[in-house]
């Protein structure tokens, strides 16, 4: 099931309430086909697998006029058929009158309503007494009055039974004044009743649905088409893709017969004039004003009175709905397509011509004018006026571009390239204009993130361009084609051959922007393929060529690439900064993003991740505003990754949601999914994490072998959370060399490899399996060998401001010590926690603090000492909602009988070693014993952290201790009677 996570949670909570003896009712409503029954069925199936009784009753339209309790009898009969013999016997013994209600027991539902109502209640309660029970009544809008009374009776009688009542109903079929409204309103007032409205699926949720139905990742264009035609109704979406495969670029022309029949059923019940008006409206293709509809209908001989009567009839029947003050359209947009198919060949052409004539007489501004021109193009095409269609399509595309409406621009451009050959057949002079048009299509698809459509369009441009007569244009197109091939996963390494060919194509114009760009691109590709010397030479040539060209775009790319190659040199900072500045002068979001990524690579190597966050946060709204949705997706993925590093889970969640709502290239969308998976793991939503990882692998099947996406560490995090420690270690060993061009990512993988190895060796030692310990050690040593073969060395610091690498090295050292079963690891974990704190890596700091507390506990430290890091991890876990970490912390606290609440500052009596302390030093000591940090002590005593540090230094000198931890432990040991100190 796609989406519905929140709704499933509500239903699951209601069922869990039944398990715990807290009854409740949930009413799920929405339009037909929105997935009410499927949602409830999925949740109930999960509950049934855990031993919950599920009684399922379905109401039938017109099927219960003379027979009361039909859905409830059906639900109870289903239980009778599946119940264990002893349970059935006990329930029937408890409710002797059951035989008068259930047909299988010889009864019939025609006895006194009051008496049978009590029988229904008694049977349901008797079943619930044997185990948690869910009663489902599906399509309650068709329920007979007796069944509604029985449901109300059950819900009103909630008092501790192990029972959940779930009901579904269609809300679009309820006429004004329907008695169901009053019944529902009365029930909703009860305290244990919840209401859920199911809306249509979003674009992203429809994409998930299609991936599940088709068994693979669908093309964005296919998703766009399904969403446009079903408007997110999951039932209609499912019917639309019957017989379609995941490799299909679009939907077949003909609609499935089952879908057509389902939609036409209500239309056939209209009068003849009503049916004809609906056909005329269907030709419009979108919601239309009453004025336009009246004008077009008049051209077909339908007068205003007949039109009004037809619209009233169709609206009353739930076929059409009012949009805004004066517009009409179909409740289900697919009905327009079905009705359009009822026209015989040629019959619709005059109707299209009438619509075109009407729309041509109107005028609009902004996006309304984009829509008008687009509608004109469609009607002209169907009326066979292709020249007018092409002109309207191009006008619509230009207007959409000016309005920053990239999706609309792409739609109109695609129509234009399709119509172009029909209008300009045999026109060789128009080849260059067609090439320019295809290039516009490719760029639009790039911005939208439709990778496959973009690749096809760039491929078409290469077919149209002539390398001999227009080598510079061919150079530009070849470079864009190669980029598209990499972004869509057609190649793992950067396309060196194409980059070299682009340089050759432009070599004859050494002062051109094309030549500079080609050199810069070749430098970039060589760097990614781990050829730094070659990359450095081409980067230098690119900067010189860019200056000769005078192009800001060329200068931006050339400086950025040269700075990237000169990773450890003096030019890296000024070059990457200059590249970004030149790119920003162009206003091109794609170029700005490319140079911004390179700038971030430099900042990342210097440990300046916070600067990366600020750059990306500023860029993201700019990219969305500019319509560059694909690069916005990549920016969202990268920003979320960095926010997760800093433990800012709530912020990362918001960014991920934004990224998931946009369509991006496969690699960009995969990065967002990876960040979403990491966030879900840290929150304990492993099923959701698995779904995101599956989607990432569908987008990029070889994702674990690709650099630049951080896939390896996310996969390792998920594997460790799901018990796949051995798989995680193997993954790190197999893929570490992939990151030879970015060893910082490789170092992070080294930490995860050490973590997996430590988990495995601890488990093997617990089992007494010495052979397994040796095997894990050997695998771990192989990982270290791979890293030693790479340059620079592991955890090399990128400068005095780099605090990230020391923190990573400290984490690695602590994990290695844990794996080696060193007798004392608390100092290593303390160092790791402090270095992570200094680097701002709050997530890693919290994990290290938990490990630090665990090590202290294993080493026999007193509770007050163990409590300090444990409380720090606890505060963080509670703050960000990290359930797994919270569980680990609470488990250790329970074992060690350690309170996780913040203790009051202890008043320490001055034993002999503390006789010489001043009053202020005593106050500082009491806070140290309570596990407070320097910042917390400063805040409590209204002094600076520097002053706190001075007092602590005096404490250490006067008591002969060497650390604040040691002086606190000494104070505790000298006053064992103080319960405050033992807290």
UniProtKB/TrEMBL annotation:
The keyword Nucleotide-binding applies. It comes from the Bacteria. GO terms for biological process: regulation of DNA-templated transcription. Residues 910-975 form the HTH luxR-type domain. Keywords: ATP-binding, Nucleotide-binding. InterPro entries: AAA_16 (IPR041664), P-loop_NTPase (IPR027417), Sig_transdc_resp-reg_C-effctor (IPR016032), TPR-like_helical_dom_sf (IPR011990), Tscrpt_reg_LuxR_C (IPR000792), WH-like_DNA-bd_sf (IPR036388). The keyword DNA damage does not apply. One of its GO terms (molecular function) is ATP binding. GO terms for cellular component: cytoplasm. This is Regulatory LuxR family protein. It comes from Kribbella steppae.
